[in-house]
């Protein structure tokens, strides 16, 4: 057993667990400052199990900081963040294990350049989840197959296209058997022809029931996969709605103005 993480179904989606319908991610009244700059202003957000939430909004609005806070890559100044009922500790061994419950995929792929794709995917499970190497490699190959790059397993990141590298980064996150996946503009550094291969993998994950928080301006993805769109600007959640309502019927001038610029 790999210990710690949730059971995954054969398809890799999370299995129903004992916690039932309690929200998986709860963010309550969090505030975050960078010096004098108030970057997250009393943010509250709930993400249910299996739900896909898209966060959208102008640059500098605090979207990345919110994602990084949920994963404790950024400390918050006050408020509460719980994942599956547990508040993440500020530091220590528990943090590494609990952080592994929250997968994160960034705009830049963040793969280890001097390790093969397979090694990139097995590293976390072996080090943090204490999985035996043969088992970690078997699971990694299944995940690489699932994201369509099993044939690239022995290559180094620089030998792959951007889209393939981002799919490898997704496989690497999934290998930790996270309870929730955070994606921070996962396609914005990609050449246009590679955007869909990454969005397709994400759409598949959503269909299989993965809980996801996705910062993206890809409206097609939001309409296809998301249950909720959160519009964030100036450190605040300005509007929260279904994708259909948000994209056709935004309530606030701020959101309307933003949409008029990206649509
Ligand atoms: P978004 O992802 O929506 O573009 P960010 O969360 O990256 O927004 O940034 C929110 C605000 O916080 C911006 O004004 C940005 O300049 C500032 N900021 C982000 N990271 C840091 C940091 N490490 N130090 C100081 N200011 C930061
Ligand atoms: Mg950002």
Automatic annotation (TrEMBL):
GO MF term list:
ATP binding; ATP hydrolysis activity; ATPase-coupled polar amino acid-transporter activity
Give the matching CDD domains. ABC_HisP_GlnQ
- A Pfam family cross-referenced in the UniProt record is ABC_tran
Give the organism the record lists. Answer: Actinomadura viridis
Major subcellular site:
membrane
Using the record's annotation, list all stretches that form the ABC transporter domain.
25-259
Cell compartment(s), UniProt: Cell membrane
Give any Gene Ontology cellular component: plasma membrane
Q: Which InterPro entries match?
A: AAA+_ATPase, ABC_ATPase_HisP-typ, ABC_transporter-like_ATP-bd, ABC_transporter-like_CS, MetN_ABC_transporter-like, P-loop_NTPase
Family assignment from sequence similarity: Belongs to the ABC transporter superfamily.
Reported EC number(s) for this entry are 7.4.2.1
Question: How does the record say this protein sits in the membrane?
Answer: Peripheral membrane protein
State the residue spans of region: Disordered. Answer: 1-21
Please provide the record's keywords in A-Z order: Amino-acid transport, ATP-binding, Cell membrane, Hydrolase, Membrane, Nucleotide-binding, Transport
**Protein name listed in UniProt:** ABC-type polar-amino-acid transporter
For this protein, what reaction is catalysed? a polar amino acid(out) + ATP + H2O = a polar amino acid(in) + ADP + phosphate + H(+)
Record flagged with keyword Transmembrane:
no
């Amino acid at each position: 057993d790999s210990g710690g993480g949730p059971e995954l179904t054969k398809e890799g989606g999370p299995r129903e667990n004992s916690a039932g319908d309690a929200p998986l991610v709860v963010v309550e009244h969090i505030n975050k400052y960078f010096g004098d700059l108030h970057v997250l202003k009393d943010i509250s957000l709930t993400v249910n199990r299996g739900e896909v939430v898209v966060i959208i909004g102008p640059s500098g609005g605090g979207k990345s900081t919110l994602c990084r806070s949920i994963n404790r890559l950024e400390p918050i100044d006050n408020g509460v963040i719980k994942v599956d009922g547990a508040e993440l500790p500020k530091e220590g061994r528990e943090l590494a294990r609990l952080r592994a419950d929250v997968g994160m995929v960034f705009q830049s792929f963040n793969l280890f350049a001097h390790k093969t794709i397979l090694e990139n995917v097995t590293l976390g499970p072996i080090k943090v989840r204490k999985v035996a190497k043969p088992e970690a490699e078997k699971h990694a190959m299944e995940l690489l197959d699932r994201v369509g790059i099993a044939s690239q397993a022995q290559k180094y990141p620089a030998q792959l296209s951007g889209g393939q590298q981002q799919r490898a980064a997704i496989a690497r996150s999934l290998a930790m058997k996270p309870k929730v996946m955070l994606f921070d503009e996962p396609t914005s550094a990609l050449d246009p022809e590679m955007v869909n291969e990454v969005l397709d993998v994400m759409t598949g994950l959503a269909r299989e029931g993965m809980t996801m928080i996705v910062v993206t301006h890809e409206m097609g993805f939001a309409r296809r996969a998301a249950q909720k769109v959160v519009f964030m600007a100036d450190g605040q959640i300005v509007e929260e709605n279904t994708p259909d309502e948000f994209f056709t019927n935004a309530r606030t001038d701020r959101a309307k103005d933003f949409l008029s610029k990206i649509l």
